[in-house]
UniProtKB/TrEMBL annotation:
InterPro entries: Dimeric_a/b-barrel, Tscrpt_reg_AsnC/Lrp_C
Domain Transcription regulator AsnC/Lrp ligand binding: 18-91
Protein name: Lrp/AsnC family transcriptional regulator
Signal peptide location: none
PANTHER family in alphabetical order: DNA-BINDING TRANSCRIPTIONAL ACTIVATOR DECR, LEUCINE-RESPONSIVE REGULATORY PROTEIN
Length: 108
């Protein structure tokens, strides 16, 4: 597997979107999660406890591209009540390395 620098391939905008659903039944959650799996710009999705239900990490060419994604896809997702987007100005740390300590590794 290769790691690609998103900025070098034109994905200059990185956005974190907090999503609140209007209802929390199993069908609503399943419908929402199935829909976000079909959006390639959403790189990560986490279920949260607290005032919002999901945190999404999204990449786009630029803010205008994110705006189109927001209005044409994200805001139309099933069950979405509210989306709060935060644009990342710069990236201080990004790694895929896990902090595996001696003795923690699974037997191979």
């Amino acid at each position: 597997m290769a790691l690609v620098d998103r900025a070098k391939i034109g994905l200059k905008a990185q956005v974190f979107a907090q999503v609140k659903l209007s209802a929390h039944g199993r069908a609503n959650l399943d419908e929402f999660t199935a829909a976000i799996r079909d959006i390639p710009e959403i790189l990560e999705c986490y279920v949260l406890m607290g005032p919002v239900d999901f945190m999404l990490r999204i990449v786009a060419d630029d803010i205008e591209s994110y705006e189109r994604l927001f209005f044409h896809r994200l805001s139309m997702l099933p069950g979405v009540q509210e989306i709060n987007s935060t644009v990342a100005l710069s990236e201080i740390k990004h790694t895929t390395a896990l902090p595996v300590r001696s003795g923690d590794a699974a037997p191979g």
